[in-house]
Structures are given as structure tokens and as C-alpha cells.
Amino acid sequence: QAPLVESGGDSVQAGGSLRLSCELLQYTGRRKCMAWFRQAPGKEREGVASLNTRSGTTEYLDSVKGRFTISQDSAKRTLYLQMNSLKPEDTAMYYCAADRLWGCPSMTAVQARGGSAFFRYWGRGTQVTVSS
After folding, report:
1. pLDDT of the residue at 46
2. Cβ atoms of residues 60 and 107 within 8 Å
3. Cα–Cα distance between 82 and 62 in angstroms, integer?
4. Is the Cβ–Cβ distance between 51 and 68 less than 8 Å?
5. Residue 76 gets which letter from DSSP?
6. What are phi and psi of 102, to 5 degrees?
7. What's the half-sphere exposure (Cβ side, CA atoms, 13 Å) at 62?
8. Which of 2, 20, 89, 122 is the most buried (most CB within 10 A)?
9. What is the CA radius of gyration of the chain?
10. Which of 122, 130, 109, 123 shows the shortest CA–CA distance to 67?
């Protein structure tokens, strides 16, 4: 079983909202970075948002700033991605990832080296489809 399990993906109209959830099934330590990634058909996987679970520091992909919010419920061992004002270009498979890191890598570093360079634990994804 994947160490992380995503849910909440759906088909929505442009302008709509969704909240994705990622349940952490396997212990990865208190100090960790968790993140959401997405991959659209024919495109590279890209980092969307990250959260340092110890400091609470977040970072977002420029195109989702102001629309998406990453958060956690540590008691429920769950990561969330609240997505508002969805656009057709947000259509993708969304994955969550986690690893024991002292701090989250920058989105620039993630884009340059890929998410697998930093995160060892991944879910299997949940599909988000936004129609115009």
C-alpha cells in the first residue's frame, strides 16, 4: 500500500473549488516536508505547494498563488490542498509527497531537479478535471 493516499479529486466547472486530502499512512517522523504535485497529460510533473510541518512555512507555484492553500491536520495525519477559482489549466493528476527534510526545497529547486530528488514517499494520485 502507498504510504500516502490522496482523495478529493473530481470534475468541476471553471471557477469552482475542490479540497484534496492526503492521508499519511506510514510514519515519516515529526520533522518533514509535505507537498502537492501535479502532472497533466503530456507535461512534466510540477510542484504546486509545499509545507514545512514543523515551522508551518509554505510555498506555492506562481500560477496557483492566491487560489490554492496547503494546510495540515497533524492529529489526523492529513495534508490538504484547498483549491479555489479553478481554471481548465489546473486539470491534472494531483499527487502528495513527503519526506524527512530539515526544510522544504524551493519550488525553483523542485522544478530544476524534479520532485523525486527530494521526496521518497508518494501517493498514487487523485484526478482533478476543470471544464470551461
Report:
1. 96
2. yes
3. 16
4. no
5. G
6. -65, -30
7. 2
8. 20
9. 14
10. 130
All three cell numbers of 47, joined, read: 510542484
Cell reading at 36: 502537492
Place of cell 492566491: 66
Beta strand 92-99 pairing with 33-39: antiparallel
pLDDT of residue 30: 64
* Regions of the chain where pLDDT drops below 50: none
Contact 24, 3 (CB under 8 A): yes
Q: Which three cell numbers stand for residue 5?
A: 493516499
Q: Are 56 and 31 in contact (CB under 8 A)?
A: no
Query: Can you read off the three cell numbers belonging to residue 90?
Result: 489546473
The phi, psi pair for 18, rounded to 5°, reads: -145, 155
Helix (H, G, I), strand (E, B) or coil at 34: strand
pLDDT digits (tens, 9 = 90+) for 91-104: 999 999 998 888 89
User: Residues, the chain, total?
Assistant: 132
